Amino acid sequence: MILKRRYFFPFIWIGLLSYASLSPSKNVPDFSFIPHFDKFVHFCMYFGLAFLLIPALLKNKKYINAYWFAFIISILSGSLFELIQTYFTTSRTGSIYDEIANATGALFGIFAYQILFKNKRMESIIFKIE
C-alpha cells in the first residue's frame, strides 16, 4: 500500500522533530547570539507538526475534531520530548518554556491551517484529500 501524501508529511515531520529534539547538543548550531532563538525554533517545529497533522486527521471520521486532536498530539509529543531530554539525555535539558513555545506554535499552526485552507479545492490538491 502506498503511503498517502496526507500521512507522509506528518510522518516525515515527526522524524525530523525526533532527530532535532534528541540529537546531542554538540550537533545543534549555536545561535546564542540571538536571544531566545531556540523558542522560535520550538514554535516553528510544532507549528509545522499541527499544520501537517490536520489533513491526516480530517479524513478519519472517528475523531470528533481534527483540530483539537492535532493540538493534543502536538502538546503530548512536545511534552514527551521535553521529558526525554530531561531524563534520558546527558547533553540536553527540557524546559517548561520550550513546552510553552511548542503549544503556542501548535495553536498558531491550527489557526494558519484554517485561514489558508478555507478553499477546500486547494487543500485537496496539496494533501490529496478526497
Explain what this protein looks like in three dimensions.
- By secondary structure, the chain is mainly α.
- Helices cover 71% and strands 0% of the residues.
- It has 5 helices and no strands.
- Helix 1 (5-22) runs antiparallel to helix 2 (37-58), helix 2 crosses helix 4 and helix 3 (66-88) runs antiparallel to helix 4 (96-116).
Radius of gyration: 16 Å
Q: Beta-strand percentage?
A: under 5%
Tally of individual helices? 5
Contiguous low-pLDDT stretches (5 residues minimum) are none
Structural class: mainly alpha
Please give the alpha-carbon distance between the first and last residues: 17 Å
Number of strands: 0
Major pleated sheet: none
Residues in helix, %: over 70%
Mean pLDDT: 82
N-to-C SSE series?
A: HHHHH
Shape: elongated
Give a brief rundown of this model.
With 130 residues, the protein is an all-alpha fold. It is built from five helices and no strands.
Helices, strands, pairings?
Elements: H1 5-22, H2 37-58, H3 66-88, H4 96-116, H5 120-127
Helix pairs in contact: 1-2, 2-3, 2-4, 3-4
Question: Could you list some keywords that capture this structure?
Answer:
5 helices, mainly alpha, elongated, 71% helix, 130 residues
